[in-house]
Structure formats: C-alpha cells, structure tokens
Amino acid sequence: MDGDAAQPYRVVTGGAQAELKEKGSRFLAVVRAVADEREAEALVEECRALHPDATHHCFAWRLGRPALERASDAGEPVGTAGQPMLRALRGAELSDVAAVVSRWFGGTKLGKGGLARAYAGAVLAALRELPTAWRVPTVLVRVTAPFDRLGAVKALIRPPEVELVEESYAGSEPRLTLRVALRSRPGLLERLAPLGCRWSSDESTP
After folding, report:
1. How far apart are CA 137 and CA 188, in angstroms?
2. Which residues constitute the domain of residue 101?
3. Are residues 112 and 163 in the same domain?
4. Could you give the CA distance from residue 65 to residue 21 in angstroms, rounded to a whole number?
5. Which band of pLDDT confidence, cut at 50, 70 and 90, is reported for residue 172?
6. Which of 19, 1, 5 lies closest to 119 in space, CA to CA?
7. Where are the alpha helices (DSSP H) in the chain?
8. Residue where a domain terminates, one of 74, 100, 134
9. Distance between CA 200 and CA 13 in Å, rounded?
10. CATH number of the domain within which 71 lies
11. Which of 116, 134, 152 marks a domain boundary?
12. Nearest-angstrom CA–CA distance, 171 and 197
C-alpha cells in the first residue's frame, strides 16, 4: 500500500457558489463535496438542468487519494476552462470535490487568458465560502475471533484509528466489522495474528 495514500487529505464540507462577471459574460461556479464520480456527474447534470440557457457548463473534480482527476472545457477553447478549474482545486489541496461553472456569453470575446482567469477565479471565489476538514482514508476489516480471544480483540478497538462498526454472534465464532485508518491496518493485523483470528478487508472511505 502506498504510504501517501494512507495519509489524511483535505476535503470541503458542504457546498457553495459564487458569481463572477467579465466583459458582459457571467460565470456562476458551484463547488460541492462529492463521494464518487456518480455524484460528480450528477452535479454537472443538475447545473445543466437549472441553467439550460447558459452557453457552457464546464467542470472539474478530484476524488480520493491519490486523486482521480477529470476536467472538461465543454466546448470552450481547449485548456481555457476545465484545466484552470482543476488547477484551482489542486492548488487548494482539496479532494472529494467537484466544481461546475456555467457561463453566459456576453457578446465580447475574452481570449484564452481571460477565459482561464475567469473560470479559475469563479471556482476560487466559491472555495473561499467553504470550510474544509481532514479526511482519513479507512478500510473495513472483518474479523472472525475465537470466543476466548474476543476480549483481547476488543481491546484493540481504539477510536478514531480503530472503530467497531458491527458485531455478530450468530455463527460458531464472533464476527466483528472494524473501520480502521489505513495507516493503522498493518499494526492491527500484526496484533490479530497471534490471537488466532481470521480476517478480510476492503477499501472504504469515512
């Protein structure tokens, strides 16, 4: 596991919008916290539906760590909208965030530099209205433990690094589902091994 991927990263909390006007053109930026590509795409569609008269709906988003990035100029000259928006998100060191800028053309061309500044500026203005938080990458670890070792296993539950999500006693052995900070997983598994436990895990998010 990449050590960098296990480290906390900054995300926005909630959503905000900001408007910028330049030589008659209007730029409306919406920035929102998103969990995945489906939510990011839904935000783009939402803006298109809310503002069908806009000339363009450009977007950028960053998801997870290391960040999955995507950007679109949506018909603007190549490199004048999506990438400047993405650089604004990247420069703020944010992830799990999507930005959409709807533009209404005002009749005066802004040139490539003017467009890039306007799209990035609208996103930065919206970001100033949003608080941020630190997100810790986590993994779900499902543990099957012998009854006589259950107490020792539960002693390893130490929030916020290791949290109990669910426990079941329906089978022959207790089963615990733990949410574990990715950076803490190696240490936890090392402690579970001598207790005679079995486990499986999959990547998750807070």
Report:
1. 15
2. 3-134
3. no
4. 34
5. confident
6. 19
7. 37-50, 82-91, 111-127, 150-154, 185-192
8. 134
9. 31
10. 3.30.230.30
11. 134
12. 15
pLDDT in tens, 81-129: 999 999 999 999 999 999 999 999 988 899 999 999 999 999 999 999 8
Indicate the Cα dihedral angle 157, 163, 165, 168, nearest 10°: 0
CB of 27 within 8 A of CB of 21? yes
Structure tokens at 101: 């800028």
Cα separation, 121 vs 27, in Å, equals: 9
In the chain, DSSP assigns E strands to 9-12, 15-22, 25-33, 56-63, 68-72, 94-95, 97-104, 132-135, 138-144, 162-168, 175-181, 198-204
Residue 30: what residue type?
Answer: V
CA gap 144, 137 in Å, rounded:
23
